[in-house]
Every structure is written in C-alpha cells, then in structure tokens.
Amino acid sequence: MQTYDDAPKVKKGIVIMKKSTEYLKREISEKFVGSWQSDYFRALGYFSSTSEDNARQRADAIYTLFERPVPHIFKNDYIVGSIRDVMTDIDEETRRRSSEISGKYIERGFGSNADHYSTDYGAVLSEGLPGMLSRIEASKAAHAGEEDRLRYLGAMETALSGLRARLLKYSDRCEELVGREGYDGGRLNWIASNCRRAALGIPETFAQALQLVWMIHTCYCIEGRYAMALGRIDQYMYPFFRRDIDNGVMTEEFAEELLENVFMKIYEHRAYGGADDVVNICVGGSKPDGSSDVNELSYLVLEAVKSCATPGPNLSARISQSSPDEFLDACLKVIGTGIGYPALMNDEVNIEALRRYGCYEEADIYNYSMVGCIENFITGKQPPWSDGRFDTPRYFEYLFNGGVSYDGKSEGIDSGDVSDISSMDDLMKKFEKQIADGARKYVERFCAHNKKERPEELTTPFLSCFCDGCIEKGLDVNMGGSKYRSVHGAAVMGVGTVCDSLAAIEKTVFADGTATLAELRDAMLANFKGYEKLRETLLRAPKYGNNDDFVDKYAVWYVDFLSKEFKKYRTPDGGYFYIAMAANTNNISAGREIGATPDGRLAGEPLSDAASPTYGRDTRGPTSTVLSVTKPDYGQVACGTVLNQKFSPGMFADGKREKLASLIRTYFARGGQEMQINATSRETLKDAMDHPEKYSDLVVRVSGFSAYYVTLERAVQEDILSRTQQE
Amino acid sequence: MTELNVSNIQFFSTGDGPGIRSTIFLKGCNLRCPWCHNPETVSPYPQTLVYAGSGKTVSYGIRMKIDEIIEAVMQDADFYSSSGGGITISGGEPMLQAREVAELCKRLRELGIHTLIDTAGGVPWENFEEVLPYANCFFYDLKTPDERVCAETVGGDFHLIIGNLKRLVSSLADVHVRIPLIPGVNSDDDSLKKSEKLLASIGVKTVDLLPFHRMASSKYDAMESTYAFRDTEPLSEKRIEEIKSIFNENFSVTVER
C-alpha cells in the first residue's frame, strides 16, 4: 500500500498548492485543438466487433471509447479523468465514416432513460472493480444455459473492463509524463498508483476511492450522458476520510483540495461545450432511527463547492429535524456567496413522499439522493430518470373556448359552453376533466416516445453494471434488470397562475357577480384589450402567497388532484409517474405559448414559477409566502419541489443568518418541501437597475425600514451595490 | 373597541429586534428629523405614495382595531417562536398612542408574544407608565446629545427625552439605545463622545448604531416633498468602525445595517 508520503506537495500535512483549483480552472479554460469525437472512438469498437448481439457490439464500442483516447492529465490534477480525451482532431473522411458506423446505433436520450442517474458509489467502493467482475462471474454460473443473459453478462464484463483499461491507461500516461515540463513527478507517480489500485483492487484511501468514483463519472460523460449525479458523496467517502485522517496520512485541507479537484472538472463541460452539466451532489440527510447523517465531510464538501464557485456541481442539502444548526448555517454561508445553492431539501417530507408509494425498502428510501436539479432518486436502484413539463394554466383555454386553444393550435376536450356553468363546483369539475384529459395525453405521449425504440436494441451495458439487480439478473437496466422500476416526473407548472385564476373567477363571477364567464372568455380572447376594468377587478382578487385561504385552498386542491391523477398511470416498465412542483425556468417559455388567464395575466407573460406564488403578488413577504405554500400536502410530491426565494446579501451576514435559518426551519416544520435561496448578487442588483420590471418584488431590508429595490433612486441603488461589494 | 392609527405592518422584519418580527409602524410623530427614513409615518393622516419611475403605488395609514392587528400579526406566530422573535411597535412615535399601545402589548403578552417599542421618547412620562407593565423591551433613540440641536434640528424637548430615558433605565426596563449616525448632525467625534458620556452616566448598557442611508429619497419624491439629505453620502465602513470603537469601551455595541 502506498501512502500520501509519495505526494511531495502534502508532506507533514501542509498543503502547498492550495491554489491548484484555481490553476486547474485556468488549464481547463485554455484553448485547444479538437472537437467531441466519441463517435470515432465508438466506431473503432463497432468496426472490430465480431458479435451479432446488440449489447455485445455496444460493449465493444464502449470499450474502445473508454480505452483508446489518449488520457488528458492536467498539470494540477490530483484526481484524474477528463472528458477532453475525446476532444480530438480527425480528418473529415474518418469523421464521416465514424458517424456512419456509430450512427447506426441510436443512443437513448432524456425521455428514454439515458441519464439523470445517481450511482450507489458506496456499494461500488466497498467491493471495487474486482468485486463487481466476480459478481458477473457468479451470475454467469447462476444463469448457465440462459444464452441471452450470458451474452448480456459478457457485454457488461467487457464494458466494465473498458473502465479498468482506462484507469490503467491513465496510470501509464502519468508515468510517461514524469519529467515533462510543468508536471510534478512525485504527484504523477502518486496518481498512477491510485489509478492502478482503483483498477485492480478495492480502494483503501480517500484519494483512491475518489479516483474510482470520478473515473466512472467521466466514463458516463464520454458516453454522452448528462446530469449524472455524484450522489451522497459525504456518506460514501466518509469511511475513507475517517481512516485517512485517523491514520494521519491526509489532512482535512487536502481532502478538501481533492474534492475541489474533482468538482472543478465538472466545469470542463462548460469550457468545451458551452453549457453547464448539472451534476447533483447531495450532502446531509438522516438515518431511519432519525439521527443525523451530517459529518465532517459534509462541511468540507460545502467548502469545496464554495471555493470552486462554478455552476456545474448542483449541490443539494438534505435538511432533517436532526441536522445540526451549524450545518444549516454552513449551507446559508455558501448560498450567501451568491451561487444559489445548496438547494435545501426537507428530508422528512421527501422520505415520506417516497415511502407512500409503498414499493421501496426503508433503507433504500433513506439512501435517496437527487438527480438533475431536485429529482428524488432511489440511489443506484432504478433506471435513469426522465421528466417533462405539464403546464396547467393552458386548460383554462380549453375550458373557456369549447375545447380549443385561443390560437386554435391545440385541443383539449369540449366541456360545453362556458356560460352554462352555474357554480364554482361545476367549473371545478369541468376544469378537472380538462386537466385529467391532458394528463392522460401527456402520459400517452411520453410512453410512446419512451417505447419508440426496441429496448433490446438500445442496451446500456456499462451503466447497467452500476444498477442494483442488473448483474444478478443478467439483464439490462431498461429491460427489467434494476431492483425498482423506472419513474417519470411530470413537472406540473403554474400553481400560482392557476390558483390566482380560480380565486379570481370565484370572487368576480360567483361571489361578487361583477362579470360573467362569457365576458371573461371574451376578455381573455381579446387579451383584455377593451376589458381593462375587468382585468383590474381580476387583479384585485386574492392572490396565492398571502396566507389567504380564499385562494390558498386551490393550491391544496392542485397538489391533491394532480398527484392523484398521475398516480393512475404507469411507465412502460411498470413504474410510477411522480409529480414535481418545479419549472426550471420553463415557466417563461410555457407562458409564451399560453393566452391570457383569468387571474389577469396577459397572453405570453410567464406563468408562476415552480411551487412559488406568481412573481410580485405575494406582497406580505416571505413569512406569508411560507404560510401559503405549506398548505398543500407535499408528501404527494415525490419528484420534488422548488420554492425560489431571493434575499439581499445583508441577510447572510452574521447575526442575520439565524433569522433566515428560523424561517427555513419553520417552513420545513410546516411541511414545506424545498427552498432554493438566492442571495441577490452584485450582478442581479445591477441588472435590476437596468431592468426594474424583472425585479419588482426585490426587497431591501434594513433596520426599521424596507423598500422595493426598484423604487429606489439610482444613487441609492449605488449605495446598496457598493455595500454588497464589501460583503 | 380600541383602534390604533397604523401606517403599515411589515412582516419578516429582521432589523428591529431579536428574531423574526413583525413591525407595526404607527402613524404620527412629534419630531421632525430632516433625515427621517420613514417620512410617510410623520403625519397622522392617510397618504398614498406614487413612485414615478416604477409606477408602484403604496398607501399608508389605516385605523385598525386591536383584534385586527392581533389577527394579522399572529399569523406569523410560528416564526416568532422558532426564532425568538415577536412584535415591534415603531413609527412615527408609537408612544403618542401609549394607551392603545399598552392594550396591544397586554394582549400580545397574554398570547406569549415578545413586544418591543421603538421610541424617540419625547412624550410625557405618564405615557411610559402606561406601557411599562406590558412591553418586554424598548429601543430608545438618541438623536443628539445636544439640547440645541434637539430643539432646532429635530424639534424635540431634550430634557424630557433624557429624563424619560433615565427613568426608564432606573425602572429596570430592558432598554437598548439606538443612535442613528447622521452625517453633519451627530456623527462627528465631539458629538459621539458627548453621547457616549451621557449614556454612560445614565447607566445604559447596550447601544445599537444605525448608519445613515438615503433609501428614503424616493419616498420623499413620491410624497412630493423635499429631502435635505438627498445628496448626503453614507458613512464609510472605516468611519463606522471608528465610531464603533468609541462606544466599545463602555457598551455592548452592534451596528445594525
């Protein structure tokens, strides 16, 4: 066994190159020649494959994809594995032939279970690649005579061997680079031995474990997968961390540096591809006995993400009642830097939501992590995730316009002339019918898409190795191999718009009688042109987010009804449809397609965002927003929820953060599911000076005074801006 | 039923005392501080402010029954208890409505809610006697240590204000003195040292410093009135630290931003 003494930079626990992260970022950002050529490296395998079997052919292509590229090792690497390997320069003819060959093999996409997956790295680290390979051997013996399964197990073995070969190639490359300008020979040798250990044995040290995890992750990436989570890194890395610290072979500072070394490389995706990857990293959580899972490493992960300050790692914190206050405070400090995460997850609600499906074992539920932005995932035990957008306000169009959208482009069901509706109950029934029809169509569309290609032709032999059950059954993750079935998340969008609309109808038409439904329809068709008075009346009706039951009751209905409706359906492999109260900025694009709504919203304006009230209409401040938003039962929202809240940077100062923490604790105690907090950064404040319309509800709070930022004079806005700079 | 003349209620107040609070701003003030950042609370009559740039319209001034106030602020009870917060009654000069404020505090106290009164103190001592049994804490503004400045710039009775502060402190009430740091009025070294000496002699223990800001300028525009402090630059961080050090010796000091 080798120790950190081989790494000269960290002798005696003193980290000399703490700046390695910064230099690594520079290295990643340097110009280079080449472009994404995974087709080429795959084609090498397809070309030489002698098998007729799809999984086998794909495995051969995966092998060359992993093994053939020249490893790219950054001078500031501690943990190696780069997607730049497959960024290479090849001639036009080779490129053409490569895509011809590889193009025959369609890859899965989002919507057909390609990615958004969280690996159970804890399981991987406990047995290492040798353990996984011997499980494949054991499974072969168990399935003797079952040709299909044996073939598939062979494909898995090849794919996994590709990973092993890649690690060994990196190891060799490190040794080759010793003596090259800018490289530290001692460190290269240290990395080389870590890679060898990760390839051939069970990782023993923190660095070896992280090396194996990261190399698997980069394999997913060069396969073309996106949003592959790193999962509960503070949990599965903790035994290694503890042992290395106790043995005195690693300092906490160096552990943080290693984490930074990994997190910074997520930035490669942006540097080469122009867009950020969404690599979810989950910290915190709780155990089935209710105790907290927060450990020293949880804090180091927070620190490491903060130091990197890149958007790539999408950090989630599972906050339970047992999470220490210091942990929540540490999360708020990271958020206060303006990077917008960690997203704060209510552990109790998420666990309850997953539990209610009745199909997951307790231990698996407690080991959930997130994929993509916020989606709750049974770590390493279900096929990759998919989700889609279900914008609900469009069903007003069908309800009011005889089953056809205002622009005539889409159809719901014809629920009759809206003037025949005589009560709010009647209206709700018809509205429910419209939404139910929409949900059915949504599910049909998704399933048709998901089943479009034959699963036996879209096999996934590499990823299947890392999903519980696939090796034992000798089956692909999408063909029944995984322990649990695939789930799909329907992001139901526009709760604020719908609630405000229903309340406006109830108040204006049925309570006050100041307008008829026919008038309302005409007004919406005219986008309120000529109906300005009516629009004002509608805008005066109670709005979601102000703790007013008159309107908030519709949010309770919204979550109940939609979760019940989607629960009726199954994905093609028999899993559930979850709902998510999330929008991921799609509320803006969805709003563009949707005509005027009964809440007074004009055609084309954004819908309300995620689980949030309509922007600018929750005028009583964050406590009332919390009171309203916690009325629905989020135990029915298994996919996850987003409540976006903005606070000025002053709220993150010492002495103020605990008030924010109390707000969050109260929100969670009342059953809120998630809060995504943004510290309004300098950039935001500057943008608000130029585009006040986008920031109408941004509040600045000081002693005895609070003001809407956009109402302040420019000179005063400058004052606040300069104060932000000091913080 | 007792009514209060309320300017507005601000929820999730984070700068007006411990924890998460709701601040009830009462309308009407007997001082005329030219730097005032809540000018809409000075007049006892309702006012509507129209902000020219953004078109935002905000109305201030409503007579609210105590039951209505209680109903409004008790919505946030969970937040008060989880954060150690409560209700702050500010203004304007809340002590001008002492009898009503006392009743409100009594009701809130019965509900287990912490109450804090933010006052400039320029009212008869009898008014304090009304609220003393019920209010948990006082924020007591010291605008100036100088009798003349108090009379000419602020329009207040210095001896009444300081006399009340003395009696309040000796009555063992929980009193935090708040000093707004106003450039050109009270934030030069001489004034500050004078304030420091005065407060030490009275036996005050805690001092909050509130650096001047000019966020109120657009309120003055919206009220179509002039604002003498429109072009006054805020104090520098360095200066604020210097000021803090003047008080550090004898007081527990916080800078409230």
Describe the structure.
- The complex is a heterodimer of chains A (727) and B (257).
- By secondary structure, chain A is an alpha/beta fold.
- Among the domains of chain A are: 32-224, no CATH class; 386-642, no CATH class; 681-727, no CATH class.
- Helices cover 50% and strands 9% of the residues of chain A.
- In chain A, the strands form five sheets. A five-stranded mixed β-sheet of chain A has the order 3-4-5-13-12. A four-stranded parallel β-sheet of chain A has the order 8-9-10-11.
- In chain A, α13 links the parallel β3 and β4 (313-319).
- In chain A, α22 (495-511) packs across α25.
- Chain A starts with 19 loop residues before the first helix and ends with a helix.
- The model of chain A is unreliable at 1-17 (pLDDT under 50).
- Chain B is of the alpha/beta class and 257 residues long.
- Chain B has one domain: Aldolase class I (TIM Barrel, Alpha-Beta Barrel).
- Chain B contains nine helices and eleven strands.
- Chain B has helices at 66-74, 77-83, 98-110, 125-131, 147-154, 158-170, 189-202, 217-222, 237-248, and strands at residues 3-13, 21-26, 47-50, 57-60, 62-65, 86-90, 114-119, 137-141, 175-181, 206-211, 252-255.
- In chain B, the strands form two sheets. A nine-stranded mixed β-sheet of chain B has the order 5-1-2-6-7-8-9-10-11. Chain B has a two-stranded antiparallel ribbon with strand order 3-4.
- In chain B, α3 packs parallel to α4.
- The longest helix of chain B is centred in the last third of the chain and has 14 residues, at 189-202.
- The radius of gyration of chain B is 18 Å and the shape is globular.
- The N and C termini of chain B lie far apart (37 Å).
- The A-B interface holds A 547, 620-624, 626-627, 650-651, 653, 655-656, 658-659, 662-663, 665-666, 669-670, 692, 696, 700-708, 710-713, 715-716, 719-720, 723, 726 and B 10-16, 19-20, 23, 37-38, 51, 53-54, 56, 75-76, 78-79, 82-85, 90, 118, 178, 208, 210, 213-219, 221-222, 231, 234, 237, 254, 256-257.
